[in-house]
Amino acid sequence: MMLCTLSDIKAILGITDDSKDNLLTLLIKQQSALICAYLGYNPQLKEYVDELQAVNNQQLLQLNNRPIRNVISVKINDTEITDYKLLPQYAKNGFLYRGNGWCGAWYTRNMTYDTVSGAYDISVTYTAGWYLPSDDNYNEGADDSLPYDIITACIEAVSERYTIVSSGVQGIKAQSEGGISVTYEGSETVGNGGLSKRVTGMLEAYRIIGVA
Question: Which of 188, 65, 177 is nearest to 127 (CA)?
């Protein structure tokens, strides 16, 4: 998966020949994978199947990918249901709404449901995500195309990594010699798989925390 294009990277770095194409393509794939891991989901528009735990007394079910484009089927305990709603204000963040709540197998204690969700009772087949820059249907700025914030974050991550690799300082955060100290910004991370603070800041609005 590539969250930005080779041509964009070469334009940013001022590279006009193809001598670095293999390296840059590798870095794009590498940094795209790190970004997906940080986001907590696959941003590519395609069909997914999630097996999820019931969330008793909750009307919103968090799916593993976003934004939800279409729901193909929903089953609870192998029984298909249709009393859910794909509401835009929730779908964009990966939530599916059901007025009766997302209860599966539960125990009843006194007058309330058990707070333990129980088994993976819910199965959802759906489409989610965006068209990527390499897809034929990609249209910059369109609702169904990858947001430019994520593309820019990937370009920034690749550029930072390329600077480190090409400078021969891979793995070095700082160096000092003869009273001169140099810090390589691309190596400054916040413990998120090697992504810099600048990159993670661009991605924060699109991140899912605590997916099933």
Answer: 65
